[in-house]
Design a protein that fits this description.
The complex is a heterodimer. Chain A is built from 16 helices and seven strands. Chain A is of the alpha+beta class. In chain A, helix 10 packs antiparallel against helix 11. Chain A is elongated and about 110 Å long. By secondary structure, chain B is mainly α. In chain B, helix 10 runs antiparallel to helix 12. The radius of gyration of chain B is 23 Å and the shape is elongated. In chain B, about 45% of the residues are buried. Classes of the chains: A alpha+beta, B mainly alpha. Chains A and B meet through helix 1, helix 7, helix 8, helix 13 and helix 14 of A and helix 6, helix 10, helix 11 and helix 12 of B.
């Protein structure tokens, strides 16, 4: 058992690594950057933001500078401005004589002058044989993605996902821990609802198959399979909040606010679990050991609960991993419908705003959560069904 | 009474397919579901044209004098918040939702079947490795990736975005298909006809395509039918979050949910079309499974 647990743990590490890599590149390679939508921020502020959020590296050097006033008529664009490279990137036949008004007498003078340059600063260049100066504004060179990723993952491993771009002054971890408890509460409530209702409905349906105690619950569960949370939730609100006025249509303040979201999130899962339970109980019913139990003269209820359930619930338990994934994506919708300040709503908003550190942090958090859930499911399965360990 | 026995006596040499067809036609849920689906598909394809011709409404024309009006003789399903006819919009949105169902399922079919057949046919270490990859992929949070992807390409033109989404959803949904096809292939590849083809000098690709695929067709059809509703649901989920298509059932439901307090019909009608389609697809899929693979039935 210990060996099995260790094996599973070792498999989770590369998976998490792959997830972090995929998310990172998907987020970073997206066209448009998170600051482009911000109003009223000067280019200097955006530049500082990018350095601060590690998108550009102030130490590496700069490529590309814009011409502010091309008095000389020289076309110097898109070249690398790095101490030695500035000379190399000049237009053909031009010799740089002055930098910011100071004469460049020796290579060391040039090094000294350029060492202090920062992105966003303006430099004045004078070339040999030309009277006017060329004024340039330096732009920064983007840090290579791999370097950015390394910096990110090193910090992430220490639990630091950096600051949020859209919530100034707050760190991603802080925001995660502020919103996660709400999602956890909703998720656990929905899971409990789904397991209780789903399994008992499935048992009821399997009790006398192909009678109305089977058709009615199974028909209802088909409803659950076909009505996703984003249809079911609004309809619940329409009936119970707007129509009957029993609950608040939105909010997460009172215990009664928990009921509709729990139903919305849990209904689909309950329906799936009911179908799973019914199917596997019907299969288990005709197994040899069930016949043996019956032959011993045990009551049907005792046979079902003591002998049937342990095997009959295996598919249900093994479904808990995918169920957790379903709950996570269901929470995106449910939290949006009911205005719950949880992680799902937070994730969707951040993704739309391209708040990249938050998206990265949330994705990794969700992924870890799902892996942990899968891991626990596997352990539970191995414990319930020792044959699995041998595989 | 004689209906049940008659076909078997009059048609003693019926093929597997006609027998399956016969079983399907006897299914009390699958047949009406199939009919309703055909109607909805026809309405989505021809509906915008019909609505234009007979009701003189279309999905784009705004009439700001008629904003969010309840159902009436001119606008059967009422109008939306921009004064556009809801019926025409639902029919037009159905095109996108059904197209997703079709195209994404085909994409997932293509990936899943080739992956599954190859893995199962090769067997051994290749199979173990390929299935391990599927297991690992299964633990990835694909819904999250899908959201990230749609956000990442939000600046693309709407058409290109739609195709990207078709492909992305298809690329996510193939794992189950690969598993099912692989295990069936494993069972098939040790059968005599495969050995015979091998002895006759058929190449491996030829055996996979000419001998294995036809034997997997039933399973593929069943699984594809059950994939369609999942795929449609996924697209609508993304659209509901405001990230997907501009006009699909999902985005209509989203608009309706935002306005339901005052204009409930804007939520009810799209939801009705959407859920009915999902219902029918699920029933039809179940019916097909019972018809094509009687052993797996209940």
């Amino acid at each position: 058992m210990l060996w099995y647990i260790l094996k599973r743990l070792c498999e989770a590490v590369p998976t998490l690594f792959v997830i972090s890599l995929l998310t990172f590149f998907m987020v970073r390679l997206a066209p448009g950057d998170p600051f482009s939508s911000e109003k009223a921020s000067s280019p200097e502020i955006m530049e500082q933001n990018k350095i601060h959020f590690n998108m550009v590296d102030p130490d590496v050097g700069w490529t590309g500078f814009e011409t502010r006033s091309a008095a000389t008529g020289l076309a110097v664009t898109g070249a690398a401005l790095h101490s030695p490279a500035l000379r190399a990137s000049l237009p053909d036949g031009e010799v740089l004589t002055h930098l910011n008004g100071a004469a460049l007498t020796s290579p060391s003078a040039f090094e000294q002058q350029t060492a202090a340059l920062k992105p966003g600063t303006v430099v004045r260049l004078r070339f040999a044989g030309r009277p006017a100066e060329l004024e340039l504004k330096l732009a920064s060179r983007p840090t290579p993605l791999l370097t950015q990723y390394k910096a990110f993952i090193t910090k992430a491993l220490q639990g630091d996902f950096g600051p949020s771009l859209k919530n100034p002054g707050r760190s991603v971890s802080e925001l995660l821990f502020a919103s996660f408890p709400h999602s956890l509460e909703l998720g656990l409530l929905a899971l409990a609802f789904a397991v209780l209702v789903g399994v008992s409905t499935g048992m009821l349906a399997a009790w006398r198959p192909n009678t109305w105690t089977d058709y009615l619950p199974m028909g209802t569960s088909m409803l659950g399979v076909c009505l996703p949370a984003f249809v079911f939730g609004p309809i619940l609100v329409l009936i119970f909040s707007i129509g009957l006025g029993w609950f608040n249509p939105m909010g997460w303040n009172f215990p009664s606010d928990r009921i509709l979201p729990t139903l919305t999130l849990g209904f689909g899962l309950a329906a799936l679990l009911a179908r799973l339970t019914r199917g596997s109980l019907l299969e288990v019913r005709n197994q040899d050991y069930m016949r043996t139990a019956r032959a011993k003269g045990l009551s049907e209820a005792r046979i079902m609960v003591v002998h049937g359930l342990r095997n009959g619930l295996l598919p249900v338990v093994s479904y808990l991993g995918p169920a957790a994934a379903g709950l996570v994506s269901g929470s995106f919708v449910t939290e949006n419908i009911f205005g719950i300040p949880g992680l799902g709503k937070f994730f969707v908003t951040s993704a739309m705003n391209k708040d990249m550190p938050v998206v990265m942090g949330t994705t990794l958090f969700f992924a870890t959560l799902l892996l942990a859930f899968n891991f626990l499911t596997d352990i539970l399965m191995a414990w319930l069904n020792p044959r699995l360990k041998l595989e | 009474m004689s209906l049940v026995a008659a076909p078997t006596t009059s048609l003693p040499t019926r093929s597997l397919w006609s027998e399956a067809w016969w079983r399907l036609c006897r299914n009390r849920l699958a047949v009406p579901s199939g009919v309703i689906l055909l109607v909805i598909t026809f309405l989505s394809l021809a509906g915008p044209f019909l609505a234009e011709t007979f009701l003189h409404v279309n999905s784009k024309a705004q009439n700001l004098a008629l904003v969010s009006k309840p159902p009436s003789a001119e606008h059967w399903f009422g109008t939306d918040a921009n004064g556009r006819d809801l019926l025409a919009r639902i029919l037009e949105g159905g095109r996108v939702s059904l197209a997703v169902g079709l195209i994404s399922t085909l994409v997932s079919l293509l990936i899943g079947v080739s992956y599954g057949v190859f893995s199962g046919f090769r067997g051994g270490a290749t199979d173990r490795l390929m299935m391990r990859v599927v297991d690992i992929l299964d633990t990835l949070p694909f819904t999250i990736f899908l959201i990230l992807l749609t956000v990442a390409f939000s600046e693309w033109p709407p058409d290109a975005k739609l195709y990207l989404m078709f492909a992305a959803i298809g690329a996510v949904e193939w794992l189950g298909m690969a598993r099912v096809i692989r295990s069936q292939t494993l069972a098939l590849r040790n059968q005599d006809f495969v050995h015979a083809a091998n002895v006759l000098g058929r190449s491996d690709p030829a055996i996979m395509v000419r001998h294995l695929l036809p034997n997997l067709a039933g399973l593929i059809i069943v699984y594809a039918t059950l994939t369609v509703p999942r795929v449609i649901m996924l697209e609508s989920f993304i659209s509901f979050l405001g990230l997907g298509a501009d006009l699909s059932w999902g985005s209509l439901i989203k608009d309706g949910a935002d306005a339901m307090e005052s204009y409930p019909w804007q939520l009810i009608f799209p939801s009705l079309f959407f859920s009915t389609s999902l219902f029918c697809l699920n029933f039809l899929g179940d019916g097909l499974r019972d018809a094509l693979d009687p052993r797996s039935a209940k």
